[in-house]
Specification:
It comes from Sanguibacter gelidistatuariae. This protein has six helices and five strands; from the N terminus they run βαβααβαβαβα. It has 233 residues and is an alpha/beta fold. The two termini are 27 Å apart.
C-alpha cells in the first residue's frame, strides 16, 4: 500500500496548494504512520518539455529503431503511469495557473497517457483527493465566472479517463494579502481559507478510513496490487 502525492506549484514553501495537501496527508499519516509516500513535484522537478512528443513518436516506431531520446521518453511515460496505477490512495495538489492547468501538469498528463495502454483506467476506484487553488475568484456571479479551465479539465481526466474516486478540496482568493487590489476581500478570503483547511482535514480523515478498509479487505481476502506497466503503446 502506498500514497502517491503529486505537486505542481511553483511557489515553493509559499504554496497554498501544498499547504492544503500537507493537511490531507498529515491526517492519513497520523492514522497510518507506516504508510509509504511516493512523491513527485512537477513544479520543482519538471518533466522534460520534449518528452511527450518523443514518447508518442517512439510508440509508433519499432523498438529496434527508436532513438535514445524516444527510449528515455517512453521509459519516463511508463514510470509516471505506473506511479498512478500502483497508488493505494492519491493526493494531487494542482493549482490553477493563467486560467488553466500549468504546463508542468499538462506535460505530466500527456506522458501518463502516452505510457498507458489505450483504455486503461489507472485510478479505477482509487480514493483520490484533488487539491486546487486559485488566486482570485471564479465562481458564479464573479467577473471571471467560467474562466477556471483547470478544475473541470482535471475532473474529466481523473474521473472520466482514469476512473478515480475523487474528492475535490479547493481554495480561492489565495492572492489576497499579496495583491493590494484584492484587499477589500480580506475577510472573505480568511473565511474561504478556514473552510478549505477544514475540508482538507476532513478529506485526509476520509482517506485514512479508506486505507483501513482496504487493508482489512486485503487481510481477509488476500489479493495483489495492479501489475506494473511494462510497455507503452
Amino acid at each position: 500500500m502506498s500514497l502517491l502525492r503529486i505537486d505542481a506549484s511553483i511557489q515553493g514553501e509559499r504554496s497554498a496548494s501544498g499547504a492544503l495537501a500537507d493537511l490531507v496527508i498529515d491526517e492519513v499519516i497520523s492514522a497510518h504512520p507506516d504508510m509509504p509516500v511516493v512523491r513527485r513535484h512537477l513544479g520543482q522537478d519538471p518533466l522534460p518539455a520534449g518528452a511527450w512528443s518523443d514518447a508518442v513518436s517512439g510508440g509508433a516506431t519499432p523498438e529496434e529503431d527508436r532513438t535514445p531520446a524516444q527510449r528515455e521518453a517512453l521509459a519516463t511515460a511508463v514510470q509516471v503511469a505506473t506511479e498512478l496505477q500502483q497508488a493505494t490512495i492519491a493526493v494531487l495538489a494542482l493549482p490553477l495557473y493563467n486560467f488553466g492547468v500549468s504546463q508542468h501538469v499538462k506535460a505530466w498528463i500527456d506522458l501518463v497517457i502516452a505510457g498507458t495502454p489505450q483504455g486503461a483506467r489507472l485510478l479505477e476506484g482509487t480514493p483520490t483527493v484533488l487539491v486546487t487553488t486559485r488566486g482570485g475568484a471564479y465562481g458564479p456571479g464573479t467577473p471571471r465566472e467560467g474562466w477556471d479551465h483547470n478544475t473541470d479539465y482535471l475532473r474529466r481526466i481523473l474521473v472520466d479517463i482514469w476512473g478515480a474516486d475523487l474528492t475535490v478540496v479547493e481554495r480561492e482568493f489565495t492572492l489576497v494579502g499579496v495583491n493590494p487590489a484584492l484587499d477589500q476581500f480580506t475577510d472573505l478570503a480568511a473565511a474561504i481559507r478556514t473552510e478549505a483547511e477544514q475540508a482538507a482535514v476532513d478529506a485526509g480523515a476520509m482517506l485514512g478510513l479508506e486505507v483501513a478498509a482496504l487493508a482489512g479487505s486485503v487481510r481477509n481476502h488476500g489479493g495483489q496490487g495492479a501489475p506494473q506497466l511494462t510497455s507503452a503503446p
